[in-house]
Amino acid sequence: MARLKAFQGVVQQNADIADCVVVYIEEAHPSDGWISTDAPYQIPKHRCLEDRLNAAQLMHLEVPSCTVVVDSMENSSNAAYGAYFDRLYILQEGKIVYQGGRGPERYRISELKHWLDQYRQRLEKSNTVVIKV
Prior knowledge:
Strand content: 5-15%
Helix content: 25-40%
Largest sheet: 2 strands, parallel
Oligomer: single chain
Shape: elongated
Radius of gyration: 17 Å
């Protein structure tokens, strides 16, 4: 949950320059599988899309400023982006410009924040107008 709160902070700080989408994939620690002792919710393994949609609603409560979408039961987004357990991406004009490491070990909010900070600086420089009077 600490990482999710940190993520939410970065999202809020950069809402003026970036839209956020969370893709909810299969549950990493289902209550009827590999249980996590610090999981805030007891979510069983998704058996159908409705299960996954219900779990995504809980995720949306944790990141209300983000659009939350749901991966298919075939896990096509997860497979395409190598997201399991969690992973951060930045896409610009349909292209990946930042790909974070696979979580939990290589999931680094600080890298995401750094990329967005640099992007903000580039935007500010490009919007600088010099007026001679």
